[in-house]
Amino acid sequence: MSISYFIKSLKPTRTEHWIMLSIFLYTMYCVLSGFVSPLVCKPLLLLGCAMYIVTLITKWKGVPLTGLTKGVFIFLVLWTVCLTIHMFFFFDLSTVITGGQIRGTISYISYLFDSLPFFPHLLPLCICCFPKNYSFDFGYFVRMMFLVAVIYICVLPFSVHSMSGINRFLGDFDATDASLGIRLLVPATIMIFFKKYLSSKQWGIFLFTFICSLFVNIYLGRRGASAMCLLYILSMWLLYVLNEGRNKKIQVFLIGIIMIACAYAIFVNTSDSFFSYILDRGFEDNRSDRNIDMITDMNSTNDWVFGRGWFGQYFDSVYGYRGAIETGALALLLRGGFLYFIPYVALLLFTFINGTFRSKNFLCKALGIVAGLEIVYLYPYGWPLFSFNYFFLWIGVYMCNSARNRNLSDGNIMSIYF
What we know:
two-stranded antiparallel sheet, 2 strands
């Protein structure tokens, strides 16, 4: 495929194309915002988010789920709307946006689009843009992720050079700045599970970028992210070992054993250099005090049931009033209480069970596994993000809770979706 043809193939013509393009623009804004003038990168943020909002409004089809899953999702949507109304009409946004200073409308909109506590929570609504039994264009998604992978590989040498110039043991560096934001450019995790549907070269490129992201996380001492990367790789390996035919099962098993042996050898021989920082951090507990502060400050039943809103804060004994807490489960409880947390986890749990154990194809099994691991990820971090990973988490909710999709063979999946 020529470069010009590849670029033309990314022209958006369907609902999912527009959503993925909006996420791509948002991602590029996040990467560029630390290096160029806001005049250059802010338009990417505004365009990407506006594109998503317009798509959400103009393509709304209703809830495509059925049964109990539909009821739980409707509740999550309604509570999301309630929290958003509360934010606009019953919460003083100036206290968190401008520190009490009066700014223009564009400043408020820009802040809301750029805010992790609010805008990513609108992404689950995207599945309401697709009717039942919609033939999602996974081919476009593969091409978009290939573009992201190419950008990642191009930035990687500069990122390695930047990271090599920091003193990790000082512990006062910003990981995103140190890595030039390269972690935001990692293709969606689901790509390494798509071995069944991709060419060997495509899958090899996605696996390469994912392994590189693992090493970046390890080098920067990101324990939770590193552990989750390893879990994803292990889960992908087990998926193919347990579900492939006998000959391929043996082949995949042996390849996995060889890779584990090589990884162990690399670890042993670089434990005093490359792995030294993450080993030095080890099981150091630097979050329990923050978690205890939040739990202590959430001292009323209303706080736990309803939360304190998208920009709700708690009193931290070190940082003062704070709206961020690293543990994803507590972050969801702070924002939306158990009324948000319970349906959120329930939807991911239904997706995990239906996709992993009740499906006949690798696509739904992979999406189910990713949903299950997202529940695990709520402990080390697991914040909702306006990203390809989070987008496909909810596409997984759409796919895995459809009996039609679960009962398709891999041949049908290939012809319909890829």
